Amino acid sequence: MSTILDLFRGSGALYGGNADFIEDIYERYLIDPDSIDIAWRARFDAMRQDAANEPSVSESPHGPVRQNFLRLAQESRLRARSRHIGQLEPVAAEKQAAVLSLINGYRYRGHQIAKIDPIQLREPPKIADIDPAHHNLGPDDMDQIFHTGSLYAPDRMPLREIIATVEQTYCGTVGSEYMHITNTQEKRWIQKRIEGYRARPELEPADRRWLLTLLTAAEGIEKYLHQRYVGQKRFSLEGADALIPLLDELIQRAGRKGQQEVVIGMAHRGRLNVLTNIFGKPPQDIFDEFEGRVKTDWRQQAGDVKYHMGFATDIETAGGIVHLALGFNPSHLEIINPVIEGSVRARQRRRRDFTGDQVLPVLVHGDAAFAGQGVVMETLQLSQTRSYSTGGTVHIVINNQIGFTTSHPLDTRSSPYCTDVAKMVQAPVFHVNGDDPEAVIFVTRLALDFRNQFHQDVIIDLICYRRLGHNEADEPAVTQPMMYKKIRKHPTPRSVYADRLIAEGLISKDDANHMVSEYRDSIEQGVVITRPVLCGLDHGSRVDWSFCHGTTWDQDVDTGVPIEKLRELTEKMLQLPEGFEMHPRVEKIWGERRKMALGDQQINWGYAENMAYASLLDAGVPIRLSGQDAGRGTFFHRHAKIHEQKTGSAYTPLQHLGPHQGPFIAIDSILSEEAVLGYEYGFATAEPHALTLWEAQFGDFANGAQVVIDQFITSAGTKWGLCCGLVMLLPHGLEGQGAEHSSARLERFLQLCAGHNIQVCVPTTPAQMFHLLRRQIVREYRKPLIVMTPKSLLRHRLAVSSLEELAKGQYQTIIPEVDPIEPAEVERVVFCSGKIYYDLIEARRARGQTNLALIRIEQLYPFPKDQFAHIIEQYHNTEEIVWCQEEPQNQGAWDQIKHRFHNLVLSGKRAYYVGRPASAAPAVGHRAAHIEQHERLIDEALSGQYNPSMNKRIPAQ
């Protein structure tokens, strides 16, 4: 067999110092033979053919080669160390150290002078670390031979060539930031790829022509829309045209690497371009949207602007079919990020893809938004946590260098780059000039391979510009005159690359012009020049919500579970590993739960909730519960996850019910509401048959996620026709602890209710909670469920249920009077929700009143109007109908449900509000004031002694 030495002897290519360099080329050959020079490839092909005919060859295709390389390298380094390093004079040793320091200077700071800005807005800074003089290296040293250290290059080179090598690698059209990474393996992997390829891809002529085809498509659709729909908003991609070849390469390479789904989240800039040229959305559909022709009934589905719409398709790649999904996105910047991550996690779970090798998340950002929106940081912070990781995300920043039109770069952020926030999770950042599509391809390959190798996030900073303003009606030169003088003189990315290929003789000018006319013709004919789009495939990637279409919220379903099954599940839940030492307080709770199952003790909230989960899991339903204290429960009631006191290890009983149970996970999330709730919403949209719950530590913490609530949870069904069964658990109730942590802002959710978009419930018994949670899955109807959960009621002596109540029945939207009150004697009917009920009934019983009925409305939306009317009809002699709430008058439920009283009260009756006066704060800050207010409203509700100064009397209209 020929050895590597024989193959390269006499060529001047191989000597001991070059062994690492050649081995690196050979590694690239093994990964992708087309990525290296043809001459090298021919030599390696011949070498492997010889190896195939050698009987003693190792099973590894490059085993003998590697061994030979290692031997040569070791011998070379030993000789070098003894001959050059060990015997260096002090001055020479100092010079050698200076060279290595200079190389590292380029690695750390070369990106600062890299040619990454296509319009060259700013002068590059002076960087001492990459100035040879700073390292005491001068003209006389340029032709001296120095060791290159860990640089992926020949072992010894003249300083002049070393500088040329690192400048080409680190100061070209790619600026690499990775030296902040503390993981040595990751850092060396990036270093090898960048330095081994000199930050340039090796593309075949056909690949380069395809690049120009994609740039032609990116420019062509924008010009066509601009001419056909003058002045209409489309949020043009022009200036960032390289995004199209970037996404094409990313998807194709992902397919070759075995990934089967790519889920993309992006804002509106460039969205129509991506839909047309990447997803293959028919151009006629986009034209119809511009012209106002809609295919859905806006009375049933409100719809949304065209640059917010999602899309799904399937693309053919060399590795097989890849399913593409583009998430629906509202205008709120970057809020799509956690939603996409949650959707990806659900898709990965469904595929049992626990490492993220099959489903790839891709997020496309804006530069100012990436730096300015806190949800970006929150989403990055989720990326490596155990229950939120998706195996790494490829982030693409469309860096227009302007943010929003009127901004000045010094006002958009405090960091040098818009991407600097990503360094907190030690993600590598690759800045690339958007006018160099070949560099863009190199960075795309590098980023995806890094993500797949290390399952970490990675950032591509596509530095470009915005040829038009924020939208097509904007005039950016008003506030950015200097920038737009440059932009208007600057050729388009397609023109830059076409001229380059023409100059190199790869294509003619006629070829370039033909591409333009061909694309325009295809658009006019309603077809596009993209990768083949496959339709009508059934491969399990699509999320199927068809089972709940056409269903209604008032379906009659039995959510009871037989007592014997409840006892069986309780026993399984209470079984612990041998020797497991519980905390004494938790041990006491375990003992009480055993008594509850036997019927020796009334059921409390924690037991009922856990039994709802256990019974669903037993039926194979997956359950995901998250929140800042979800495992234990903020109020020490749930204990779905318990901790061994000697070792600190966690044990989750609901994961050990049986071999065929559904998966259960209780997640104590990071201290975030917006990103975590967005993530769980995304997860729930992609998991129709799972129970997905998010619990706020206190109900008012949902304020921090209001964007998710407003733009996704309550409106996505109306805007986009999306289904979702997410459950929000919001602890709510005025306990005298001040303005914060009292109210879950019930009024805000009720204000958002319309068209049966969500469910808002206030259960007051453990059995009600049990049936409510089970109803969310047992009933085919799927809408987000907002639950005002209790705090003090978790241990209230009256807020209990029996085992029989769990075994029978269903969720009651209204609970009628429970005491033996004669309807004919009732003069006043008091309706209420939540904790106030127990205060009212205790006071009524203490007073011995029999002329007043207490009715609980347990579902405030959709409002159970038929049951409400039926209850009112029972009380013929009633003179007054009262709504009593503990929240201030302008908060709580009253303002959103009082029309129900006005419409349904019997003729001649009057309806009143009883509660706290209107207030800008949810509750008073002093406990004494809280108690005084509380006693007054209880007395007013029961006695009818209204206080005119508090403006309590509100007549029906």
From TrEMBL:
| Organism field | Thiorhodococcus mannitoliphagus
Q: Where does the Transketolase-like pyrimidine-binding domain start and stop, copy by copy?
A: 603-796
Query: What functional role does this protein have?
Result: E1 component of the 2-oxoglutarate dehydrogenase (OGDH) complex which catalyzes the decarboxylation of 2-oxoglutarate, the first step in the conversion of 2-oxoglutarate to succinyl-CoA and CO(2).
Per the UniProt record, one Pfam family is: 2-oxogl_dehyd_N
* Record protein name field: 2-oxoglutarate dehydrogenase E1 component
A Gene Ontology biological process noted in the UniProt record is: tricarboxylic acid cycle
Gene3D superfamilies linked to this entry = 3.40.50.12470, 3.40.50.970, Multifunctional 2-oxoglutarate metabolism enzyme, C-terminal domain, TPP helical domain
Family according to the record: Belongs to the alpha-ketoglutarate dehydrogenase family.
Protein EC? 1.2.4.2
Task: Kindly report, in one word, the top-level EC class recorded for this enzyme.
Answer: oxidoreductase
Question: Which cofactors does this gene product need?
Answer: thiamine diphosphate
What GO terms fall under cellular component here?
cytosol; oxoglutarate dehydrogenase complex
Keywords associated with the record: Oxidoreductase, Thiamine pyrophosphate
Q: Which InterPro entries match?
A: 2-oxogl_dehyd_N, 2oxoglutarate_DH_E1, DH_E1, KGD_C_sf, ODO-1/KGD_C, THDP-binding, Transketolase-like_Pyr-bd
Please name the GO terms that the record assigns under molecular function: oxoglutarate dehydrogenase (succinyl-transferring) activity; thiamine pyrophosphate binding
